[in-house]
Amino acid sequence: MRIVVCIKQILDPETIKVSRSLQAIDERTARRIMNPPDRWALDTALRFKDEDPSLEVIAMSAGRSEAEDILREALALGCDRAILLSDPYIVNARAAGLAMVLAAAIKRLRNVQLVMTGYKALDTGSGTLGPRLAIELGGWPLLMNADQVRLESGGYVSGLQNADEKFYASTYPLPCVVTVLETPKHPRYPHGAEIMNAYRLRSVEVWSTAALGLDPATLPAPTTSRQMRLPPPREFGVIIEGSPQEAARNLIATLKARRII
Amino acid sequence: MDLSFLEQLLGPTVEEEEGYRNIWVVAIAWEPHLRECDLQVLGKARDLASSLGAYVNALLIGEGASEELARELIAYGADRVCWGAGYPTGPSLMEFVQQRKPEILLFADAAGGRKMAPRLAQRMKTALVTHAVDVSINPEERALVAAVPIYNGIAYRVVECKVNPQIATIQPGVFPVPERDPWRSGEVEEVELEWKPQPPLMPVEPPHYYIPLEKADIVITGGRGMRDAGWHLLEELAAAFARKYPQKAVAVAGTRGAVDEGWIDRKHMVDITGHRVAPTLYIACGVRGTFQHFAGCEKARCIVAINHNPDAPIFKHADFGIVGKVEEVIPALIEALDS
What we know:
The complex is a heterodimer of chains A (261) and B (339).
Chain A: E1 2-6, E2 9-11, E3 17-19, E4 24-26, E5 32-34, H1 36-51, E6 56-62, H2 68-77, E7 81-85, H3 88-92, H4 95-108, E8 112-118, H5 129-136, E9 142-152, E10 156-163, E11 166-173, E12 176-180, H6 192-200, E13 205-207, H7 209-212, E14 223-229, E15 238-239, H8 244-257
Helix pairs in contact in A: 2-6, 4-5
Chain B: H1 4-10, E1 23-28, H2 36-52, E2 56-61, H3 67-75, E3 80-83, H4 90-100, E4 104-108, H5 113-124, E5 128-132, E6 134-138, E7 143-150, E8 155-161, E9 166-170, E10 187-190, E11 203-204, E12 218-222, H6 232-244, E13 250-254, H7 256-261, E14 281-285, H8 291-297, E15 302-307, H9 314-317, E16 320-323, H10 326-338
Parallel strand pairs in B: 1-2, 1-4, 2-3, 3-10, 4-9, 5-9, 12-13, 12-14, 14-15, 15-16
Antiparallel strand pairs in B: 6-7, 7-8
Helix pairs in contact in B: 4-5, 6-10
């Protein structure tokens, strides 16, 4: 049985800056990292592999050629194969098109029973890849925003689904698409030697739309991005003066007067 | 009377084809009452409809749906409500949308819509914007224009839809609940879709490490500046608030710095990559105020900052600031609360 984990390369939100004068996000100093929720998905899949070494875990990413780095990292973590879907059409594809490309690649790999991904990408934060893939793969069941995902015997996958801050225990038959929530256990990070091996000894397969047999003209692009907007800055507040005791009493009184507490 | 001159004046009459028109809202009733977030979406749909000259229709689904609730939706601003008790299968929902041809289809960004909207959009290969915080209409193209947060809300991307039906999910709590007008009239119609057998929901206790910081009314956050004061002071301040206001949910959180120092678990982190809180009162103690941290707390109604450094950037964002040592100010606050 094969498990495909879809991972995305994003700009590390901790390293981006906001430029108010340009009304844009300053990406020049930003690092590119593996989307943290996708790392959880990868970690979950690799834990399944720890229990059952016959499983084959395949990391897949669609987008620019720079994404090769996170695929090498996935190889270093213990994935069996890494596949990069990249060509100019894929780089410019929008969410609906990307789901079609990823689904075409998953269909091309035979015997994939489980597709996993993070519950959202921290950059765009839309969290729609899971549901979109479920449709593109032909209506697979969808375990969405799940915690404590487990492979059950008899071809089932179970987990706790989070919906509106409540958790529900759910079980779905394989094949299934799972989007994974973050859990407090630390995900694994690769060993330095493994990273070197991933660059020196392993290879990342690169597939294009032509190789997948997709006509790039059919990739839908139903929305256009216009501009970026920054929220207005918060207004300056007041500094409450005085000794700590006075200031504390004043603060509580003001908060009460404004009906905040 | 010969009115043919009118024809010349107006030009040849255009045969209007049956196109996509009207705004539809999908409301979901798991239990026999309406959700507030659906009503908020309905209110916004009413606004959009007036700029498009369109009707607002609603599809009410879910096990709790009933004719009574459908009438209630009319009172809140819908012109026509189709309802059916159950949860439709994907293909039958798509068929319904293809039949009714909504120009714009809105969901609340909550349970149900989050799963349904992307699947419907992918099935129809149509336009979808998710988590919209603001929506408007581009009147020339009759296109939905939506602002969606990126990087946890430090910026918004403006997205325009190009393909009908234009589907959007709207964040709860952004728009007000419209006024209820019991005298409004409208049509109610029961529809028969193909219902999906729903397995019984099995609610479970949230995992112990799951902290609903987003739901807290008062959030007290500590940063690296708590080094000398000790983290226990924050817990004591939280306890003092909880004593004084037992009906409010009080939570303690940390910045990335505090998490790195190991004073609090990462699950409690308010940050661009952590929780994004929206309490009524947010108290930042010993927090310098990087913009990554601010992205996590800017939704708070009132921000109070306590820091010994008067030049700390947090004071630019705070509504109230106290310049002083945390180890002096926090005990004073506890005293003021208890007196």
